[in-house]
Amino acid sequence: MDRPESTSACANVFVNIYVHVYYRNYGEKPVSKMASSSATGFRSSPALIVCLIFLLTLAFASAKKRTKTVDFDVKPGGVVHTFAAKIKKYECSFTYASQGGTNEQWQMSVGLSDDESHFSCSLWRPQGKSYLFFTQFKAEIKGAKIEHVTAYSQTAVGGLGDVALKEEEYSVGDHTVTQNDGKFRAQLSKLTMIGQTSHDEL
Q: How far apart are CA 166 and CA 169, in angstroms?
């Protein structure tokens, strides 16, 4: 059953409960008066409880569809790798090459505002600091134009403090953030991008 039909069916249950309770209490069908929410039928109706659960589930499911966090491994060895995550038509990707150490577990989180006017993407090392040396990186968002970027070589986790990359270390375009060769110090632990989406006018 799709959402519109389910919602309509639930609304009908509310109307039927209201009519039933009002008729039972006042002996006539309601015209313009509203039944009190304290009526016995409203408090004890299994159908009402089911509908409330259903509507809360829809709200929770809708919120879940607007955010997503996934784990991925950053792999050393100098080979270029790409990882991506998306919500609806909006996508974030991280392309990089790194050296030193072993695989590190990172996370990528993507989110879409309720009115779909902004799309965000964050990627980070949960331990607060990466011990890999990034020889190159490019973070990109599709479907939105970048408005705000923050980048860190170290974040405040486990007693560490935030250490932001210097502006000269990276370049920000309409859709991408990339390292500046010769100025990037090869340290990256977190990157966040927030972009404004484009809507087609009807």
A: 5
